[in-house]
Amino acid sequence: MANTSQPLVPPELPERLRPIMEAPYPRFSTTEMARRRAILTELMQAANVNHLLLYGVNRSGSAIGYYTHWPISAEASCIISAGARDTMYVQYHNHIDLAKQIACDTDVEWGGDFGIGAALDELKRRGAKKDRVGFIGPLSYRLHAQLAEAYGRVADLGGPYMQKRLVKSAEEIEWYRIGAMLSDRGLAALKAAIRPGLTERELGAAIEASYLPYGGTNVIHFIGATSMASPDCCVPRQYPSTRRLSQGDVVFTEISAAFWDYSGQVLRSFTVDAEPTPLYRDLHKTADAAFDAITAILHEGTTPADVVAASSVIEESGFTTNDDLVHGYGGGYLPPIIGSKSRPAGKLPEMKLMAGMMVVVQPNVISKDGKAGVQTGECVLITKTGIERLHNAPRGFARV
């Protein structure tokens, strides 16, 4: 009987990336993991701590995966000490075997009761002293209080760790290319699925089905759908509704699919069996112009103020924004987070872009009454002289 099973990799994946995607549980190189450990050692020395607690829960807390490869299924805490082997405690008990298989250079044990009790016991066995322990991760108030009660002042290395995540290594970027490719597949599947009568839930199912066979996982697929003649939605919805598509609708989306913890982000708009109305034509024309103006000035040394200035076409066209205009990406929703002149995202960060950073440029241009909007954009890589596209999805306002 012929083998009709799904191939391990999609046909558009570059040949050099095939071994990563075909591996049962892919690993970064020893050189890359040593680079990460050197960063962690530097952070610990700067904070004057000898021991570090990494914590994650319900897939939140990127440091666990970054240093161990384990993507956190429920709850995990890892103790790192200079000159000692890392020890990680996971929940649930039936997750231990897989964590042992996936985790890199890390001893894996059951965490017992939920929380960090087992990790605190490990710190005691290692002779941790007061005021010499740090942590990275989303510790709750209760868990932080337990750590502080046992070890006094505990240094929060989360901020410095996130700063180090801003610039990606060449090896990381290759994994992000896979996430971008999977996100593009989701977008293509959405476009192919759009037709009158479908709900936003069904569109979401089509998106996920396009990358699940290749090990992709959903980060987000936000979908907005509304009538162009009588709009009531200006930004993609975070949760799908049961509203059914109709001729003359606009559908706009923000899609991030991940390969392990490495995802892309792509944003586009479509019309349903109709040409754009004059309002939507102008909204998208402005969004495209804003994207082009912003990406034209992005390079090492660009400031958030430069980005806001480049986006002025939005206000000059009589529109504004709802979503953030630009944000850092890769390992979280990272700095700089930049809004438009007419809808700031708080105080502009005082920083300059660096080569190796990834940012999402996503002009969500909306009418001033907040009823109509479009979205376009994608994640790009900052270089010394400009940007590099990570996505291959066609741009433009497509009629489906």
Model description:
With 400 residues, the protein is α+β, with helices and mostly antiparallel strands. It has two domains: 30-165, 3-Layer(aba) Sandwich (Creatine Amidinohydrolase, Chain A, domain 1); 170-399, Creatinase/methionine aminopeptidase superfamily (Creatine Amidinohydrolase, Alpha-Beta Complex), CATH 3.90.230.10. 33% of the residues lie in helices and 23% in strands. The protein is built from twelve helices and 18 strands. It has helices at 18-22, 30-47, 62-68, 96-102, 117-125, 141-151, 158-165, 170-193, 200-211, 278-297, 304-310, 313-316; strands at 51-57, 75-81, 86-91, 106-110, 133-136, 154-156, 216-227, 249-259, 262-263, 266-271, 320-321, 326-329, 333-338, 358-361, 365-366, 377-382, 387-389, 397-399. A hairpin with a 3-residue loop joins β12 and β13. The chain is globular and about 70 Å long. The model has no long low-confidence stretch (mean pLDDT 96).
Write a concise keyword list for the protein shown above:
12 helices, 10-stranded mixed sheet, 2 domains, Creatine Amidinohydrolase, Chain A, domain 1, alpha+beta, 400 residues
Compact description:
The protein is built from twelve helices and 18 strands. By secondary structure, it is of the alpha+beta class.
